[in-house]
Amino acid sequence: MSQIARVSTAASAVAKNTQSRVGRGRSLRPRASENAQAGADDVDRRRALFGLSTAALASALSPLSAIAAEEEKAKKVVAVPYAKYAVQAESSEEAINVAKALKEAGARLYGAFWCENCNKQKELLGKEAMEYIDYIECFPDGVYQNSPGHEDRVKPDGICDGYTSAWPLWVIPKPDGEEIGIQGQIKKPRDLQRLIKEAKGEKTDLLKYFTTLEVE
Predict the structure, then answer these.
(1) Cβ–Cβ contacts within 10 Å for residue 157, how many?
(2) For the chain, where are the E strands, in sequence order?
(3) CB within 8 Å of 61: residues ≥ 6 apart
(4) What does R_g of the chain's alpha carbons equal in angstroms?
(5) d(CA 97, CA 103)
(6) How do strand 78-80 and strand 143-145 relate by DSSP bridges?
(7) Has this prediction a pTM greater than 0.85?
(8) Which H or E element spans position 126?
(9) Helix, strand or coil for residue 180?
(10) What is the signed CA dihedral for 120, 126, 129, 135, rounded to 10 degrees?
């Protein structure tokens, strides 16, 4: 074989061997899309683990937070001395007549000196009418908690047992010994007149109630 032939044969062999190695190298090297997918999967796994860890931590700390809140509440100092509310409004003739009827019916009004709606109810009737109302104060000794020199008083007085669901609370006894009441603020004095009639077992003329200023 001539020298030129040997060189050509060797060059062909080298080229073939190089192509073979390059081909094998490509099969071992991951593609760019595969790398991106693997990275995305890894991020998703990390996010999932982080979410689980955060949820577990929040669940573990929740009872501790509740306990801390209760402890902080127990340490809170409250000192609100009792102060009788002074009614400023003048009573209308209607309010005075209703108040007299309430007194005759044995009605009672339960409330607390710090209750804004209770004081608004008193203003609705006026100071003259309130003189006829049997008002029951549920915090006659004020409100105290962790206050030096004072016994804790955070619950209504015993005289209000059974009448603390909502204030102001109007209660009127019925002839059979039971009671009828209205929770919440009354908007008009005549609403109380209707309550008196209901306690007596009388029916209210609703048409007259909604079209006149008073109920007979």
Answers:
(1) 15
(2) 78-80, 108-111, 134-137, 143-145, 169-173, 179-183
(3) none
(4) 42
(5) 10
(6) antiparallel
(7) no
(8) none
(9) strand
(10) 30
Please answer whether residues 80 and 147 qualify as being in contact, where contact means their C-beta atoms are separated by less than 8 angstroms.
no
- CA angle in degrees (0–180, nearest 5) for 196-215-198: 25
The one-letter amino acid code at 147 reads: S
Q: Answer positive or negative: Cα dihedral of 35, 41, 47, 53.
A: negative
Question: With the C-alpha atoms ordered 11, 12, 17, 20, is the resulting torsion angle positive or negative?
Answer: positive
At position 44, the amino acid (one-letter code) is D
Q: What is the pLDDT along the chain (216 residues), one digit of tens a residue?
A: 544 444 344 445 444 444 444 444 444 455 555 555 656 666 566 665 555 555 565 666 667 677 766 666 678 999 999 999 999 999 999 999 999 999 999 999 999 999 999 999 999 999 999 999 999 999 999 999 999 999 999 999 999 999 998 999 999 999 999 999 888 888 999 899 989 999 988 865 544 444 444 444
Q: Which CATH architecture has domain 93-211?
A: 3-Layer(aba) Sandwich (3.40)
Residue 171 structure tokens: 């209660």
Identity at 139, one-letter amino acid code: F
Element (H, E) at 175: none
Cα–Cα distance, 140 to 82 (Å, whole number): 6
